[in-house]
Amino acid sequence: MNEKPYILCIDDEFFILWNLKEQLKKVFGSSFTIETAESAETAKEIMKEIAGTSADLAVVICDHVMPGQKGDEFLIEMQESHPRTKKIMLTGQAPAQAIGNALNHGCLYRYLSKPWDAHDLELTIKQAIDAYFQEKSLEEKNKELADNLYFHRDTKYPNFESLVKQLKAEGDPNKNHSIVLIKVVSFPIIIKTFGIEVYRKLFKKLLQLLTVHLQNEEKVFHIDSDEIAVLSDLPEPSLVEKIRSFCMILKSDDLVLDGVGFHLDCRYSSAAGQEDCFYKAKLALFRAEAQGSSDFVSYTDEHSIDNHLQNFQLSQKIQSAITKKQIVPYFQGIVDNQTKQIRKFECLARIKDRDAILTPDSFLNLARVTGSIRMIGLQMIDESMNFFSDKQFDFSINLTESELEYKSFSKWVESRLSHYKIDPSRVTFEILEDISFSENKYSLSTIRDLKNIGCEIAIDDFGVQYSNLARLLEFEPDYLKIDGQFIKNLPENKTAYLLVQGIVELARGIGAKVVAEFVDRPAIQDMIETLGIEYSQGYLFMKPSPALPTAANLQL
User: Fold this and answer.
1) Is 435 helix (H, G, I), strand (E, B) or coil?
2) Regarding the domain delimited by 312-554, which CATH topology (the fold level of the hierarchy) does it fall under?
3) SS (H, E, C) 236-260
4) What is d(CA 72, CA 106) in angstroms, rounded to the nearest whole number?
5) How far apart are the C-alpha atoms of 324 and 328, rounded to whole Å?
6) CA 520 to chain CA centroid, nearest Å
7) Residue limits of the EAL domain (predicted)?
8) d(Cα 455, Cα 396) in Å, to the nearest integer?
C-alpha cells in the first residue's frame, strides 16, 4: 500500500516552522504527511528517507535566509534529484537575484512573502499539488505510450521503431553501425502446431539466451513476429563471429520449453552502414531466405539489383507525397466522335517529386502493396472535383478496390459533390480491371450506391483480366472502355477488328456507350468512327497534362 505523499517545510525559525506546519496539517493533514526541517542539510536527510519509500514528495516550501546553504542554492540543487516536486519560496528577505536564480535554475513554482496570507498560502499549495500530480500522470501516460511504441508487447524487448529511433538518434550521421538479422523460419509451423502462447514463450527465451550470450555488449531488438536484430558498434565481421557462435549452439542443442525440445531453423544476414544498415541487412536476408541457407549472407552492392531498397525509398516518397498533398491530377481529353470536340476529361494520378513527375507505372504497384493506394485515390477524387468545380466539362476518375471496399465511400463522394457544388451526372467513376467483386462483399453495393447518387460508371480496359462479360451481369455500366491492346493494331489485325465490333454491338444492346483508348494515329481513328464508337481517347488528341487545352484546341 502506497504511503501518503509529503509536503516538506524548511525554515530556520522554529516558531514560523511550527506555525506553518500546524496550518498545513489542518488543511492537508489527512491526505499528506507534513515534514519540517530547520536547515537545507536536515531537509536533504529527510528527502533521502522519502526517496527510500514509494511516496511522493509533492511540494517543498523553503525559506531563503538559512544557516549554511541558502534557499535558492538548495532549490537549484534539489532540481537535479526532484525535478517534478513543486518548489515554493516563502521569505521576506530574499533579494531579486536569489528569486531569479530559483526561477531560472530551480524551476521555482511560486514566491510568497512573509508574513503570508493564510488563504493565499493554502490556495498556492493546492495548485502546486494539483500541478504535481497532473505532471506525474502525464509522465506515466507518456511512459506507457513510449513502452507501447518502442517495446514489443509480448517480449518487452525494444522493437523496430526503437531500432529506427536509435539509428537516427546517433550524434554523427556518418557513424557506421553493424547489424545482424536473425529470422526464425520454423516459427510459423510451431504456431500452427502448438499455438501462439508456446511461440511467445519460445521467442522470449530465445531473446534472453541471445542477450546473455552477447553479455549485454550489443543491443538486441525484437523487430518482427519472427525476426531479431542485433545492433553493434563492432566491425561487421566481429559481430558476425559473435552471432555465429550462438548459431552453433542453436544448431547443436534444442531450445527446451517445459520439457519439450524445439529445433529452431534460422536464416541470418548482416550489413554495415549508417541509418540504412537495417535495410541493407533486410535485402541480404531476402537473399538468405531465397537460398534457404542457414549460413550468413552479408550485404553487398549486388543485392541492390533486386530493387528492394529502391522500392522502399520510393514508398517513402509516396507516403511523403500523400502527407504533403502532392498527389496531383493530370488530364487527358476524351473526344466526342459526333461533334469532334473534347467534351470530357479523364483524371490521372501523378506524384510531384521535386522537379519530376512520377507516373502510375512507377508507383501504383508499390502503393497497392503498402496500402497507400486508398489515400492516393481519395486525394485524387478531392483534387479533381476541386479542379472542375468551376468548369463546364464532365470528368472521369479511376476507382481501385481499396475505395470500393468501404461501405461509407459513396456517402463520402456525395459529401464532396455537395461541397464543390458538382452535379453527380458530370462524374464518371472508372472501375479498374484488377477489381474482383467476389473478394469484397461491399464493392457491388458501393457501385450501385454511386449510380443511385447520379454518378456514371465505366468499365475500364474492357476485355482483359476481371473486365469481362461477367461484369455486365453484376451491374449496368454506362460506358465500356475498350482496352488498348484491341485498339492499337485495329487497322492491321482482323481479329482485333472483329472483337471490337462485337464489343460495340454488345454495348448498344445493353445501352452503354463505348470509349476507345490508346488512339494514337489517324488510321485507328478512321476505323473507330466507321465502327460507330462514340468516344476516343489517346495521344492523337492529347497527352496527359496538368492543364486543360485552350478553347481553340478543344475543337479538332
Assistant:
1) coil
2) TIM Barrel (3.20.20)
3) HHHHHHHHHHHHHHHHHCCEEECCE
4) 7
5) 11
6) 42
7) 311-556
8) 10
CA end-to-end span of the chain: 86
Could you give phi then psi for residue 230, rounded to 5 degrees? -120, 120
- The cell numbers describing 378, all together, are 481519395
Q: Are 441 and 448 in contact (CB under 8 A)?
A: no
pTM, two decimals, is: 0.50
Please give the grid coordinates belonging to residue 167: 539509428
pLDDT digits (tens, 9 = 90+) for 450-478: 999 999 999 988 876 544 566 676 778 99
Q: Which of 217-221, 441-445, 511-515 is predicted with the least confidence, judged by mean pLDDT?
A: 441-445
Residue length of the chain: 556
Helices (H), 151-271: 160-169, 187-194, 196-214, 236-252
Which amino acid makes up residue 383?
E
Q: Would you say 17 and 38 are in contact if contact means Cβ atoms under 8 Å apart?
A: yes
Read off the pLDDT of residues 265-319 as tens digits, 9 standing for 90 and up.
899 999 998 888 898 898 889 888 888 878 899 988 766 655 667 788 888 889 9
Instruction: Judge contact between 206 and 212, C-beta under 8 A.
Output: no
Average pLDDT over residues 211-228: 89
Q: How far apart are CA 292 and CA 267, in angstroms?
A: 8
For the chain, domain boundaries = 6-148, 160-303, 312-554
What does CATH list as the number for 6-148? 3.40.50.2300
Residue range 160-303 in CATH 3.30.70.270: yes
